[in-house]
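Troubleshooting entry. Yesterday's outputs looked truncated, so today I'm pasting the complete records for two proteins to confirm everything comes through intact. If either block looks cut off, that's the bug. Protein one:
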Amino acid sequence: MRNVKYTDSITFRCLEHLRETSLDISLIHAGREHCKPLHVCSETKEEYVIHFVFSGKGFYSVNGTTYPVSEGQMFIIYPGKPVTYGSDAVDPWHYAWIGFNGIRADAILRQCGFSPKKLILPSPLQPEAIMDCINSILDCKSLTFADDLRREAWMLMLFSRLINSYEKRRHKNSPDTHNYNSNVYVELAIEHIKYYYKDGINVSDIAEHIGISRAYLNHAFQKELGMSIQKFLIDFRMHKAASLIAGTTDSIKEISKSVGYEDQLSFSKAFKKKFEMSPKNYRAYQAKSVYYTEKQFSDNEEDFA
């Protein structure tokens, strides 16, 4: 990895080459610049980058198409896509940017309104709100664990502000419609389940988190996966529990709590319905299967000895 670099001048301030600290979402670089006329960048990024244009104008070229970009807009660069972007000859832009990676990147971008077909959007935030987050990131320039956390906190704050403002504008313009395809809501629900299934969440909690009705969320699951969201949630918990039962010595009570069940009896009933045996019998069955597999392997080794 290249050494972390911090630059601070009148026209350019940037913190770059940061180490990735999380698979979830990780800051790679951030900065702001008053560009000179015809300042052009041609590159293929390894990370996602959002640029926020505060003043002036320029262009953004990707996939053989060139788009004009001006004050009050933002544009996304996807990793692995060759792009060219540059400032205007007469009215060069002043912009800020944030580069990031992680398994939640696509979901965050969709919630901001971006997609591979929507690369340029009006910024839902005032420049001051964006610069507040960017400058706070740049102020945390020490290579310490504390500053790692502060930088990522301000990055998440920026995303939350973008998403919140975008959602408000979207619901104001079309309060009775769903602007995303059903598969997007299913992906968001599954992502939420993966992170919070341990906390005893229910279908209503998931629907409220996404911002749609329970009925529509269930409709989306039926359409995309052929099952109710309730069944998906139970199945997800049962498979997690089965893995723990087979792979750990934790008690059934501990495992039931770790997958979101406070009542061990309810957990055992759900587990038996799914796997047609009780958690205790499942553990014994898995232990027996491992024993015979290991014994067979040992016998085969002796045959070849």
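Protein two, checking that the full record survives here as well:
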Amino acid sequence: MILRIKKLNPAAKIPARSTGGSAGLDLCALLEQSLTLPAGGRALVPTGLAVGLPSAETVGLIFARSGLAVKRGLALSNGVGVIDSDYTGELQIGLVNLSDEAYTIQPGERIAQLVVMPVLLPALEEVETLEETGRGSGGFGSTGRL
């Protein structure tokens, strides 16, 4: 399986795994100068990269870097970014600063991670009823706290 990566800007950094066991490829900010996100602030940060996913049965998922999220409050503004198999435009990372302090993103800083995963593409069938289950339509909190 091959993930094709295109630099849209010569200064862009090709993503890499930090360790041999890393699932995600680190994505870096393509900035000419540092960018300060105030507490509660949001920004769309370019990477200067585009990708060609291996097939229509794969999806690229962009996740927050856990260290930035837990230690600094820097998370993805949309929770998880979804890269469809037919999208070949620039990967841009929507970030939000959930902390009560400003955070400054440095040029070239690792700001998110990309994971490529298989995706199921089932045929759709409209039905009048669904099979009964023990949970049924019980939603949020319906299975108890512990």
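Both blocks look complete. Sanity check on protein two: The first helix runs from residue 66 to 72.
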